[in-house]
Amino acid sequence: MSGSDPAGPGASQLLLSSGDWAAARAVMAEQCTGRSPRGVVAAAAPLAAALGAHCLREGGNAFDAVTVAALAETVLLPPKCGLGGDLVAITVPADGGEPEALLAIGGAPSGLAEVAAAGRMAVDGPTSVGVPAAAAGYAALSERGRFDRRRHAAAAAALATDGFAWARICTVLAEESAELLTRQNPRGTRYLPDGRPIRPGAVTRLPGLATALEQWVEAGPRWLQGSAGAAIVDAVRSRGGTLSLDDMGFATADWVPCRHRQLAGHDLWVTPAPTHGTSLLHALGELHAGGLLVGPGAAAPPPADVYRAVAAASARRQRAEGERAVDGGTSMVSCADADGTLVVVVHSNSFPRFGSGIVVDDLDLILANRAGRGFSATPGSPNFPAAGRRPATTLHAWALARAGSPARAAGATPGGINQMPWNTQLLTDLFRTDHWPGLAVVEPRWGWFPDTATVRAEAGFDPDQLGELAQAAPRLEPAPPWGLRCAQQVVVRTGRGEALVASADPRTVGAVVPA
After folding, report:
1. Is the pLDDT of residue 105 over 70?
2. Each residue's pLDDT tens digit, 74-85
3. Which of 16, 124, 248, 353 has its CA 20 to 30 A from that of 326?
4. Which pLDDT belongs to residue 113?
């Protein structure tokens, strides 16, 4: 619809009174929140959250729990994440030290610059595949746990071998990606049996992933140096890609300092470049400069002002990096343990949900297209695929504290190009309500869709403010309550004598399980 008609035809049934909305949000916030003095685990796959919480009960710490949960998600949600992708993480130490970021984003293959300069780098298929670094990232998380890799991978491997219920979201993503999967795997793939997506709830076994996980147990960060790396290279080169065994050295996982900024009485830390964490700082900085970033008890900034701040931060990044717009095939897990350590992990196969579309048959491994989606094809750009360079990525995570105090909350959201807009909206709410993260997570959200120059806004915004957003955005369309594919998670360590808290977005079947 045009900017002059924010409600739009048929949208009136989505408009509730302010009292109705307050009651509905309070119920939803409680439903998506878990609390426990022994720790909490949130994940996009409920079973993964349960397995992480079980790990805490067995004596594991936050790193153990997120490694178990993340590896389980590589089996339960393979269109979204896996050993063929990348990850970023942020951790807040229990001792009150500075938050730290983990970057496990593979570098560009050595031959990709020539392909890009010739205009042949694609957004999917063989020239879109970079060096996958997720395996190194899972190993780096595992090393900070109390248990070993075998214990961390055991539950995921058992699911892959014995079978699990195929998630409805995986069926939806397979339907959306069926043409890509068929084109890139003409001999068929386990993810399209008989040429059709797997039915929701169907018992599914992925023995190849069990093999890949066993190889990861043995090799850890050197996983790509063995037969798994050779199989990935063969799958890419046989389809015309440039990936080589020598390129596998570009898969590293590095613990690095976070970017930091003080805003409206808060300290905010974010994962650094090449993630979009810096853009999150810029967007919130715009709101802070305008006096719109406010503290507890204040009204939320008008969505039109948040939209303008996000648009300015995005334009600034694109001018600096010349990057492509990306969209998401991403998941996340997070944990707060009894010691007070917080860990948030975002792991991804990138757009379009099955990444490049290439499946390494013997390993049931889906290869991401981070390189094809993330790099700029313009020679001389700081985001051009020079050998080993990490591409710009929408993945990022953050940690938050009252100014002068240790960080007490951390979080993120999948969502591709909408990760920065959704994290901006989430944090403006958390600045006001961080004592109860569920209230922030269930607030109405807007998201942008660059392909159609459209902003979609969920029901629940103030009608007058929605009209202002309609004037600011190129085009505004309504979405049902909690109707966007947002997947926010927040973990919070509270005061002495209070339970740890986590909230997981109800929009995408996220779950929190207390230990």
Report:
1. yes
2. 999 999 999 999
3. 248
4. 97
CB < 8 Å & 24+ apart, contacts of 190-193: 190/359, 190/361, 190/364, 191/78, 191/79, 191/354, 191/359, 191/364, 191/366
Pairing type for strands 476-479 and 454-458 reads parallel
Question: Any bridge partners for residue 333, and if so which?
Answer: 43, 345
Bridge partners of 401? 267
State the Cα torsion 371-168-427-422 to the nearest 10°. 50
Q: How far apart (Å, rounded) are the C-alpha atoms in residues 434 and 493?
A: 10
The type of residue at 262 is: Q
Per the CB < 8 A criterion, the answer to whether 385 and 108 are in contact is: yes
Residue 62 identity: A
Q: Round to whole Å and give the CA distance between 99 and 388.
A: 26
Locate 336 and state its tokens.
């707060």
Side chain identity, residue 242: T
Among 256, 221, 285, smallest CA distance to 91 is for 256
Sign (positive or negative) of CA dihedral 135, 140, 145, 150: positive
pLDDT tens digits for range 289-308: 999 988 777 788 999 999 99
Per DSSP, what are the bridge partners of residue 261?
268
List the structure tokens of 327: 């969209």
Compute the 3-state secondary structure of the chain and give helix, strand, coil in percent, each to the nearest 5.
40, 20, 40
60, pLDDT greater than 60? yes
Angle, CA of 348, 352 and 356, to the nearest 5°: 80
DSSP class of residue 251 equals -
